[in-house]
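Quick check before the chapter quiz. The format below is the same one you will see on the exam, so make sure you can read both the input and the output lines.
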Amino acid sequence: MSLAGFGWEISNLHNNGADVYFRVEKNMTLNSMNIDVAFMVISLSSTGFAEVLCYAGVSRGTIPTFNNSGGHAYVTLPSDQNFGSVTNYNPNGLNISKDPTLSQDKFYAVSLKSWVPSDGSASSSSRQVLANPSLRLNAGDYLVFHMDHAAVGGTAEMQVVLQYTLG
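Here is the expected output.
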């Protein structure tokens, strides 16, 4: 059993996002992952909701590409060709803000949401995910981790521990 881990934090996260990524140097199987994310308000600018979208995926054989739509720096993962397209059923005409697509090799996705009152108290949010993806990684693949934010600003942090087997 081999372990690797890292952490990263984005300060003054206000309606934008960032990514970190690294190259897989040897063929391996990602057996398990433990990812903890947290958000907190550091200076109160307004009341309302705060939201942080966090996800991780594999860019197969190439440096990941990004879409900086509205400053959010989304990772561009290819759609998974093993599934058909996602179809919306929306008989009530609800506002669906994003067209959902099935992304290939996205292995983690969490959305943190919190109400921020006028004094900012009790407005932090966090979540920990422990999963066993048994995900095959090849030398030359890249693991990429994303966080972006909407509404009341703050700081987001992600801590990652990966357990893997070489070969």
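If your answer matched, good. The chain has one domain: 2-80+99-166.
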